[in-house]
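target protein:
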Amino acid sequence: MGKRALLVALCVWSYCLAALCRESPASGISQSSSIAEKKRDFSGIKSKFSLRTSKNPYEDTCYIVPGQEASVAQCNFNLTTKTFMVIHGWTVTGMFESWVSKLVKALYTREPYSNVIVVDWLSRASLHYPVAAAYTKVVGEEVATLIDWMEEQFGYSVDKIHLLGYSLGAHVAGVAGSLTSNKINRITGLDPAGPHFEYADASLRLSPDDAVFVDVLHTYTRGTPDRSIGIQKPVGHIDIYPNGGGFQPGCNIGDALRMIAEKGIHNADQLVKCSHERSIHLFIDSLLYGEKPIMAYRCNSKEAFERGLCLSCRKNRCNNLGYQIKRVRNKRNSKMYLKTRAQMPYKVFHYQVKIHFFGNTNFTKKNQAFLVSLHGTKDESNNIAVILPEISANKTHSFLICSETDIGDLLIVKLRWESDSFFTWSDWWNTPELRIRKVRVKAGETQKKVVFCAPEGFSDLKKGGDFVEFMRCLGKHPNDIESL
């Protein structure tokens, strides 16, 4: 039952992706009238703008209608505070997905006196994907018309407007931002859709020019360009790629099958949606857990990040993910990376571990598994698994590990070299052994660097052996101990 449900979900998405690669994003859709014309005639606007309330974030009870001044008062729109506009993406069901009300509720939790408007373009977003993708331009024009009308009619400043667009909705937000008379304050792109937009002109998709500040979360960028569910290239002032932007923790096939078995076949599409939708839940996390913001780090590549080489906060190299992001307008796109947990709260603590392995003979081994345990002033984190693509004797290696626990200041580091999962005669007759004098650790969240020493000057690390323990080196200031 579970495998059949999963197959059905994958087939639906495969059909749609195959179809969208064959059709033009402009197919079957006539060009809409200009923004200037729409200001004179609002009758062609089909999108609905529901002002939801903090008391009832789940229902659409009042709509702001462009051109109808009375609707603004009737919906109790607050002209003195900020406005969030939530824009959904493509939908198979033609109904709002559950994340919409969750995001609305989280926004009101963080900003209780704000206005949260849900842009409803479901009738167009539920069409065949290529048609829905083409409609992002039309819907973006309609959103821009509303914003310009609010500014002209009520003097409502665009400095108070923050658009949050998911998937195709991110490109709707981009088009809207490019067309408003004055530049809106902020756009957050939540895993902007990839197909039809990876190579699209900037005027048709989200880009840094669409708002004073544009930040983007990329959570599902697997596959070849333009077939990736989420857009792969950076399209904002800051582009963050959690867990490298690929599959997110907790979104694997096994988890999806368990969900289907427990909750039914209607959850079969969660395998595809899980990583894509994670962008939304990471932003919700940033609203609900603002006292412990998730940190992201600027890096040239995810491979360099995996080696722990990018945990610096100097010159704006680190930033908060989500709502509390610090605005940095770089001359070029800034790509940032981080790791997360599988569930909310998603925050983890990043550490770079740097070790020089000594050996009596030079040798190199591939894909070696290690366990690392960290003990600190607040807590401990045991058996953190890491696989090093390659290790060599008489060479320094750097790698990244993450703890789901805030352990405070580091006191002890333990290291174990795991046996291979398969039997090798060479290891039977000659167990590999490395000698370690010091272990250097840098904490990304605190920027503290600490060096740990072997108790007897050197410690022997044997493959398949016991944990080897390293203590803080004596005689050094704990916050400034040797350079990593």
Notes: The first strand starts at residue 48 and ends at 52. Residues 1-39, 477-483 have pLDDT under 50 and may be disordered. The first helix runs from residue 2 to 20.
